[in-house]
Design goal:
single chain; eleven-stranded antiparallel sheet; 35% strand
């Protein structure tokens, strides 16, 4: 196994996925190399997975293609690597390669490659064995730096083997997260990285592998995601011509040698009514990479959606222990959008399973709690006597208790219950205080009830500032508004205007004006 930056201790995982493809006719002999002239469109209906690692069969792992700050998927292809139509680039020769370049925010570098995927396929009359390499670059493959490469040797990394027929293989290359040696790519200033796949040895190479394409009926080739092939069919399905690359052997009258972007490869042309096939493929390579920021990712730590609908950043294992849903390494509660739990929502006339927020939008509704169910066509709701002595109907016992009330029973109504009246501070005319109901306080002449649940504490029954007729709390408390207030009360015959507390008729007279002026001048004492 050939390597540029690696060691025997580097544990790379390779997943080879084989897929049956419908049969189509392909040429049986070698022909001059011209990539689009050998494009062959095939369908990929089924994917079968064989999992292997550097030490043999590998334990199945969870899918690596997720999107969070520890696993960012970079892709140019429209393919999902599942069932679909692909085009095999059957003009490739021994030692030729395809590559894709991706741009990453500068602040994310250095990045770590977690997974690389590439699709190859065949329409072969015989079983095939393909020797391969994967390569990783900082920057583009033409001007950047090769950081690491790995090659199959059939000892540590297996060759790609496919049975005779129309077959596809998705090769997935990943590094064990616990391995001390990883594929870390620095920023070369371009804020880009590239992945490449090279066919080192075809099953039956051409007699002249430099200038001749191998037999299409006995070899496997890289795939692009276009669904049409043939001269004059256009390049509408090639979405990223400047980010897809071809490495070609140097050969006269063929594709340019070395790394060349698709945008710089010769397209089809027409001469005298004849279509001259160019070197430019009509789609993007079926390749993708998953990467993470070396410094910005903490594996195993992320947002956890709890069963009650709240969110907390937890370790993945702790999230699982409480029955939560882990949102991925590096994920944030700000974007988690945790689903809210649902339960029975009771209201006059029926019951619906809703979240607590949605239930609250219904007037007079009562949410019975997470996980509760609507029992038949009726709801366990009734009247609730609240601490302030009022009654509210159509709520559950749970909702009633949560408000400090006393549930009156399932099916009860406010019209059929008499809620106990609360007590409160009752200030007597002599300055004393008693704890009474509003009704009982009202029986005592000159008393003032301070409200439900109030208590007889210090200052509760202190006399208010008499000349502050309008009870203003904004300085100056005593002002011309108090005179206006007094005049209005005098005109209305209000007892407040009897400032001198006279009991001789007429009770309200000029003496009350003199009294108010004197008390106003004395201020609040």
């Amino acid at each position: 196994m050939r390597r540029v930056v690696s060691s025997a201790a580097l544990r790379a995982a390779v997943i080879i996925a084989s897929a049956g493809l419908p049969t189509a006719a392909m040429a049986q002999k070698e022909s001059p190399r011209s990539l689009p002239a050998h494009e062959t469109t095939v369908a990929l209906p089924i994917t079968q997975v064989m999992r292997v690692g550097p030490r043999g069969p590998a334990t199945p792992r969870p899918p690596l293609i997720v999107t969070d700050s520890c696993n960012v998927a970079a892709s140019l292809t429209s393919s999902t690597f599942g069932p679909g139509t692909y085009t095999l680039q059957a003009g490739m020769a021994n030692g030729e390669a395809g590559a894709a370049t991706y741009t990453v925010p500068a602040a994310e570098f250095p990045i770590r490659i977690n997974l690389m995927e590439v699709l190859v396929g065949q329409q072969s009359s015989v079983p095939t064995t393909t020797q391969w390499s994967v390569l990783f670059y900082s920057g583009t493959p033409s001007t950047g730096t090769l950081v690491a490469s790995y090659s199959s040797d059939d000892v540590v990394l297996p060759h790609i083997r496919m049975a005779a027929g129309t077959v596809g293989t998705v090769l997935q290359f990943s590094i064990d997260p616990g391995d001390p040696e990883q594929i870390d790519i620095p920023d070369d200033g371009s804020h880009q990285f590239s992945i490449a796949f090279r066919i080192d040895q075809f099953n039956q190479p051409a007699s002249n592998p430099t200038c001749g394409a191998p037999s299409q009926s006995t070899n496997a080739f890289m795939a692009t995601d276009n669904t049409v092939a043939g001269c004059g069919t256009g390049y509408t399905q090639l979405q990223f011509p400047s980010q897809n690359w071809l490495y070609a052997n140097t050969c006269p009258l063929a594709c340019p040698g070395g790394w060349t972007a698709f945008a710089n490869l010769q397209p089809d042309s027409s001469i005298g009514g004849f279509c001259i096939t160019g070197c430019r493929p009509r789609g993007d390579w079926v390749m993708r990479a998953t990467w993470s920021s070396v410094q910005g990712c903490t594996p195993g730590l992320g947002a956890c959606c709890k069963p009650d609908g709240t969110c907390e950043v937890l370790l993945a294992a702790n999230c699982q222990q409480i029955g939560g849903t882990y949102q991925g390494d590096g994920s944030s509660c700000a974007t988690a959008n945790c689903p809210q739990p649902t339960g029975a929502c009771c209201f006059t006339g029926g019951c619906i399973t809703l979240s607590q927020n949605d239930c609250g939008a219904i007037t007079g509704s009562s949410w019975l709690g997470a996980g509760t169910a609507c029992a038949g066509s009726s709801c366990p709701i009734g009247a609730c006597c609240l601490p302030i002595g009022t009654c509210t109907g159509g709520i559950s016992s749970v909702a009633c208790t949560a408000q400090g009330g006393i549930f009156q029973g399932v099916g009860s109504t406010c019209g059929g219950v008499s809620c106990p009246q609360p007590t409160g501070a009752c200030c007597l005319a002599n300055g004393n205080c008693l704890t009474l109901t509003s009704a009982n306080c009202g029986l005592i002449s000159g008393s003032v009830w301070q409200g439900p649940l109030t208590t007889c504490g210090a200052g509760v029954c202190a006399s208010p500032c008499y000349p502050n007729c309008d009870q203003s709390t904004v300085a100056p408390i005593l002002n011309v508004n108090d005179f206006t207030c007094f005049l209005n009360k005098f005109a209305a015959g209000d007892s407040y205007a009897n400032c001198d507390q006279s009991t001789v008729a007429p009770i309200l007279n000029v003496n009350d004006f003199t009294c108010f002026l004197n008390r106003f001048a004395a201020g609040c004492t």
